[in-house]
């Protein structure tokens, strides 16, 4: 396979960053226009954003529109953010910590460019550290980045093959998201709206079920208010390095997803370690507003920046998990956090005091547990498939990019 070397600016129509509308002006926010921040580049493919802005917010700020099929790179951000590369599946506006690359499609396939840059994370981190006192990537530095390209036909064959794998991963991820949404919908209907099935199988509250006043508002008669610390234990089990368990530091816990399958090698686990067991509930307590609340799918080890909670009985597990997955709990944990620059949620006199509405009928908890268990089992099987697909992609991609493996001309991708 023959390659030609370019500087990045030679294969782009445009390269630019955006801006942020003033957060003090409410009319700039909660519109219908997607607005991307650098932290969201943790996703390889982006079709939706966490925040939306208005047309007025666009007109009165320096934010810029990045079009569908563009590549974006985080030029700055907390933790591992800087250097992350994503591919846009929809148009969206970007902030000042994102650089948008618009490829010249006569020279480079857009997905091929994305895949090339996505494998160069460490290099992008390095050049930003060496070129800026604040450790940020700049358009000036990126323009000079060298890239070796095969002919456009070969690029398209490679990107089509790898994107086919990524599409399957995206489809599977969407299925998991739907399953998690089903669990959250059932939780809301049964334990927030109190429409769990009564003895006749009818919705409790709307069928005249008796409600009584409590400190958390109306609840079904006989139900209780319990503090979280009375129904779970905050585990701090010491880890022995000879156990060689999968390592899951806080950054490996996904945001706003109840399940995960990823981990790091045991050798990377160094200090402040605590052990967790399968079906423990893990909560990232550093910057708890990032909403890292997950059920552990295996036995492993994490750091003290994660709470490891064990329900007193497995019957409570899914009910407690869904309670802790709510914005209500995350907001409570955030409000009781200590520290300003890097706030930490605290257990004692903090999260342990979170109040949970607790059913008096174990049969309701069992029914709920059984339904959610089924969705969790399905999701874990899909996560296992995703893990295998990611391993396949990550094995093939560098070999295809380097020319070590070539796709035969007669192979239909």
Automatic annotation (TrEMBL):
Keyword annotations from UniProtKB, A to Z: DNA-binding, Restriction system
Domain Type I restriction modification DNA specificity, first and last residues per copy: 2-181
The organism of origin for this protein: Macrococcoides canis
Entry protein name: Type I restriction modification DNA specificity domain protein
InterPro entries: Restrct_endonuc_typeI_TRD, Restrct_endonuc_typeI_TRD_sf, Type-I_RS_S_subunit
Gene3D superfamilies to which the protein is assigned, alphabetical: Bipartite methylase S protein, DNA methylase specificity domains
SUPFAM superfamilies (UniProt xref): DNA methylase specificity domain (SSF116734)
GO biological processes: DNA restriction-modification system
Homology family: Belongs to the type-I restriction system S methylase family.
Entry's Gene Ontology molecular function annotations: DNA binding
């Amino acid at each position: 396979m023959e390659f030609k070397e370019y500087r990045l600016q030679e294969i782009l129509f445009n390269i630019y960053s955006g801006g942020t509308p003033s957060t003090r002006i409410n009319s700039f926010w909660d519109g219908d226009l997607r607005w991307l921040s650098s932290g969201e580049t943790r996703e390889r493919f982006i079709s939706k954003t966490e925040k939306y802005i208005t047309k007025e917010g666009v007109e009165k700020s320096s934010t810029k529109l990045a079009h569908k099929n563009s590549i974006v790179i985080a030029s700055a951000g907390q933790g591992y953010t800087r250097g992350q590369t994503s591919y846009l599946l929809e148009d969206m506006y970007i902030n000042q910590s994102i650089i948008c690359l618009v490829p010249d499609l006569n020279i480079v396939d857009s997905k091929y460019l994305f895949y090339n840059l996505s494998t160069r994370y460490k290099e992008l981190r390095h050049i930003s550290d060496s070129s800026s006192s604040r450790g940020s990537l700049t358009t000036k530095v990126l323009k000079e980045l060298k890239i070796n390209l095969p002919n456009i036909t070969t690029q398209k064959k490679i990107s089509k093959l790898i994107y086919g794998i990524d599409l399957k991963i995206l489809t599977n991820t969407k299925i998991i998201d739907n399953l998690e949404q089903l669990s959250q919908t059932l939780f809301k209907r049964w334990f927030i709206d109190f429409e769990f099935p009564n003895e006749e199988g009818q919705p409790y509250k709307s069928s005249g079920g008796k409600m009584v006043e409590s400190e958390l508002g109306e609840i079904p008669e006989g139900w209780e208010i319990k503090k979280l610390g009375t129904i779970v234990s905050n585990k701090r089990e010491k880890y022995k390095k000879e156990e060689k368990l999968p390592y899951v530091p806080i950054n490996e816990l996904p945001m706003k997803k109840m399940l995960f399958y990823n981990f790091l090698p045991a050798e990377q686990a160094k200090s402040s370690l605590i052990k967790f067991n399968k079906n423990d509930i893990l909560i990232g307590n550093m910057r708890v507003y990032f909403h890292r609340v997950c059920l552990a799918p295996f036995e492993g080890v994490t750091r003290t920046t994660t709470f490891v909670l064990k329900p007193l009985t497995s019957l409570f597990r899914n009910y407690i998990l869904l309670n802790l997955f709510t914005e209500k709990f995350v907001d409570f944990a955030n409000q009781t956090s200590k520290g300003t620059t890097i706030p930490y949620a605290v257990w004692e006199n903090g999260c342990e005091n979170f109040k949970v509405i607790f059913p008096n009928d174990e049969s309701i908890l069992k029914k709920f547990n059984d339904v959610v268990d089924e969705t969790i089992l399905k999701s874990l099987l899909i996560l296992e498939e995703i893990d295998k697909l990611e391993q396949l992609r990550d094995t093939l991609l560098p070999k295809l990019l380097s020319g070590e493996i070539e796709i035969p001309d007669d192979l239909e991708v």
